[in-house]
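Lecture 7, part B: from sequences to assemblies.

Below are the input chains for today's worked example.
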Amino acid sequence: MPAIDWFPLWLSLRVALLATLAAAAIGIPAAYALVNREFRGKEIVDAATTLPLVLPPTVLGYYLLVVLGRNSWLGGVYEWIAGEPLVFSWQAAVVAAVLHSAPLLIKSTRAALESVDHVYERAARTLGAPELEVFLRVTLPLARRPILAAAALAFARSLGDFGVTIMLAGNIPGHTQTVAVAIYDAVEAGEGATARVLVIVVSLLAVALLSLANRLTPRRAL
Amino acid sequence: MLSAKIKKVFPGGFTLDVAFEAADGVTVLFGPSGSGKTLTLDSIAGFVRPDEGRILLDDAILYDGAAGVQIPPQTRHCGYVFQNYALFPHMTLRENLEFAVRARKNLDRHKRVTEMLERFQIAEVASRLPHALSGGQKQRGSIARALLAEPRLVLLDEPAQGLDAMLRQELYSVLREVVRDFRTPILLVTHDLEEAMEVGHAMHVYREGRIVQSGTPTGVAGMPASAAIARQLGIYNLLEAEILALDPGRNTSRLRVGEFEVAGSYYPGHLIGDRVLLCVHPAAVSVHARNGSLRANQMALELEHVAEGPHRARLWFAGGIRAEITRVEWSSIEKAGEFAVEMAPHAVRLIKG
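Predicted structure of the full complex, as structure tokens:
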């Protein structure tokens, strides 16, 4: 049994947790807007949230490098505030994971919000509740199980990101090396035992998250 | 007081075009499903925007097509009791009621909710979630929740749907209580005539997106304006006949119904030889055991089917004539093989085809 460096796993869990929270913070309001609001450019926003699902991760990573790199405007602002560049930091891995998981979360949340019987929202409106209150006290609680299921899947997806992470955060052991990247590294370096252990741990984690998501999704009658 | 004039055209060909007023008491919108009743409620509540018209509630304009006014449901002060009650499934009954008075101060809110729970006899189950409530409790909870918001009008969509006879009676007494104690006008949608007559003070008959007759429920039920409405009410015998003789002096007439000759009253504006449609209430049809020859005005008809209720028996005769007689009457003649059917002349009315 080789001495395994668990840092990549802890880093991945931390990155995935922060990314899921961030994705939820962006995704739930975005899904609400897509379901309830009519605004100009709605189709563009809708398409933009689907694009990351179909683009190769390296392409996404490249775009992020361009937008958030040291020479970019956004990257400059970040560096000025944080005192260090965003790229090739563990925070960059969070950004990569958000981009990787948010589209899925938005899509599922949107479906969850749309599945809520509108009669409850109507009832709340006739009782004088403003739209935001209708959403927070009626729609969101009624959709919470499928949204939590979506969050569990988003967490799993954040955990497994490879392409975007390696482009934006790189592969710095003990600093930005996440578990997916570490497995690749271990295989490359011929450390089969390390790779196997990490693969099994990640697989078990994924299965656990999947069964949690399934349990949260209400069974529908056909 | 509600005053509504609503027009909405749908691409499928259906057009809703109605105008009516609803004052104190229960105003019933009566008609078959798909005739536009719920659409009317949804327009008043603000879920649906009409194409044209004007909806006024007391002194407030809820909708004005010409002026482009459409205020949101939140500020319309219309309580809505939905078909499936729409109690929030993730809140207890008490929380559901509290939602309606959430803007009030804690103590006041608690007092109002408790009062309402007690008045509607649902205080013991206040801590339950809606799925653990009985149908009657859900319904009272839903009405209580709507009333707590102090609406100026309560809309009820088929409230008795799916309730058994006892719960229906309970609902009707709750509604009468609401009318008496809260003085909130109620607009009730139903396709059940008994319900309309039981609770309604005024009634509008819907048919294919229009109001075809208005009046008191007993008035409409007693005097349908056309054969189509009579058919919709489902209570009358409608029989084709020919006028054989008219006597204004005695206020009588002779009519041919199929192969029989029967008596009616005098029908002004009609001529001998006119083909007309008779409208006769089944309770105005008497049935006798037939012994030998027929007497005047009697029709010898074959009995096709009998439905015995707890109080009355309903008899279906050949030619589509229905009679409703008491069980006592029925038991005295049920052994007879042949029947003579007679219509009370004063109850034989003519109706527009």
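Note for the exam: Chain B has a mean pLDDT of 92. Keep this in mind when comparing with the next example.
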